[in-house]
Amino acid sequence: MTEISAHAAAMAAKVEAFVRQTIVPYERDPRRDHHGAPTDELVMEMRALAREAGVLTPHINADGSHLTQRETAAVLIKSGLSPLGPLACNTMAPDEGNMYLIGHVGSPELKERFLAPLVEGRARSAFFMTEPAEWGGAGSDPSMMKTTCRKDGNQWVINGRKTFITGAQGAMVGIVMAASDEDDTRGGACMFLVDLPDEAIRIDEVPNTIDTSMPGGHATLTIENLRVPATQMLGEPGEGFRYAQVRLSPARLSHCMRWLGGCIRAHEIAVDYACRREAFGKTLIDHEGVGFMLAENRILIQQCELMIDWCAGVLDSGSLGTVESSMAKVSVSEALMKIADNCVQVMGGTGVTERTIVEQMFREIRAFRIYDGPTEVHKWSLAKKIKREWKHAQDAKAG
């Protein structure tokens, strides 16, 4: 990994010690909601401990500035050593990405009102973009957005439906994305900051899902005549799709960071198991079939670290990094899936039980391959870029 500042390195070390010593014991805490995610009571208890330890929101400095992406990687990987670590340290999605977006686009007034409670760990947030497939709304293709916003005096009125909105239940801050036909929006989308809960936003369903690490689940909801003051528009009218990319590129990479930390821990557990468990006269790790899986894990972990570091460097250079973050998301999520699968396989029956976090990491990583765009969408997008580059090269030769 690229060298980082002494401050960031020290913070990463503090986060690792805190997660391993203080948060790992909470993994057996029974305070969970209907689909297995930690309750807000548990989250706030852990955050109080993080605040006391000086590791709450460690990727944002006291003056409000963010660590570089490479420095953020060092910290977020350590926070991910437990599924509860990102929640305790306030580095979890969607809050981490929402803090990044508000910090880069929000006015001073909006930062004071909506960003401060998030940075201080006093509130959770939700990002309202994805829409139900049966409604014909936006999913991987945001241009299909059907949620609308229209002006009414000094307010905007929003109507529509959203789905898979992580953390909506129990959130206090929302970023709502809606399409507009108003003249000053140029047919684009707008983003609004809203206080939650709001009676105009009705949660219809919070389904049980394969992952269980995010409080509030992934809700489907209806927005009916939600009135938002014009002063709560995030950024400029019609720039919502561009702001979504401002958020999504680093958010994709942050997912890679956190879940790499989780897979590092799962690998540690699998190694310990394989070095202690005996079968056919020797420890499991001495059987090639097992030892080779753990060797593969070590290789894949190194590859993930290098890919994250490379993409972080691109983002730190000032590039939007959409292509690079897509490549990192595909590469890292697929590698982590193999690591998690190897860990389960090495541990056999124990690997599919709740006795360790290995089983949970397998489920979480499977879901990560869909979060922020499934692998296939990113590959399709990259293939289109390859074709454009080829065409440009052919045109240059012809010219």
From TrEMBL:
The keyword Oxidoreductase applies. Gene3D superfamilies: Acyl-CoA dehydrogenase/oxidase, N-terminal domain (1.10.540.10), Butyryl-CoA Dehydrogenase, subunit A, domain 2 (2.40.110.10), Butyryl-CoA Dehydrogenase, subunit A, domain 3 (1.20.140.10). Its cofactor is FAD. Keywords: FAD, Flavoprotein, Oxidoreductase. Residues 8-121 form the Acyl-CoA dehydrogenase/oxidase N-terminal domain. Residues 238-385 form the Acyl-CoA dehydrogenase/oxidase C-terminal domain. GO terms for biological process: fatty acid beta-oxidation using acyl-CoA dehydrogenase. This is Acyl-CoA dehydrogenase. It comes from Novosphingobium chloroacetimidivorans. The lineage of its organism: Bacteria, Pseudomonadati, Pseudomonadota, Alphaproteobacteria, Sphingomonadales.
